[in-house]
Amino acid sequence: MRILIPLTLLAVLTVAGHQSVIAQSDQAISPDKVFGLFNGKDLSNWEPDVPAKDSNPSAPASFIVRNGMLVSMGEPQGHLVTKQVYRDYRLEAEYRFPGKPGNCGILVHASKPRALYKMFPQSIEVQMMSGDAGDFWCIQENIEVKDMEKRRPREKGAQWGGAEGDARRIVNLTDGSEKPLGQWNSMVIEARGRALKVWVNGDLVNDGFGATADRGKIALQAEGTEVEFRKVQIGPLPAATP
Length: 242
Known about the structure:
seven-stranded antiparallel beta sheet; single chain; 2 helices; disordered N terminus; mainly beta
């Protein structure tokens, strides 16, 4: 007797040689081993979303591979988004600003494209801007931290949220965690349920909870400044500590 398993129950997804079986209703990968989101050769696991390309398809590429590195050129501004959805993971990136200091970010739990200012996908940004690495920016999503009044300044009448006009920035916990310009930085992001923790060069720089999303795609920014990535990898979470 042959037993058929309905496709509505199971789906098999292959990501950069990594195979996971997940529930169709979930549609999110929880890694069970470490693998590269960037393979050092091409951007086959990613999709660019660059608004300027809508009206000018011949505009320069915002993201390229150069000398085995993934490079965000900064302009035209936009995002490089994974093709897959992830939840409950440890993400590690090694990056540097090779020329001048500037702005970039890693966006987690990304979903609806161009949800804010017709540019930014609905997500929670982990800031990489020089001097502010580890800040959270809420983009049509939200997350909480301890000491909200102190760490999430807002103008009179503004609310904590992720929409235009909201107090969207949550300031990181440390100063001086970044390396000097031109040196490589390590950023680790742990997404565990509706909590996010971020380390920069080994320092815990942010610790959020109660996020309005617990899964989504992962995006890298092009936001005005050239940034090199020599590692972008994802893997399982370590065991939770009390």
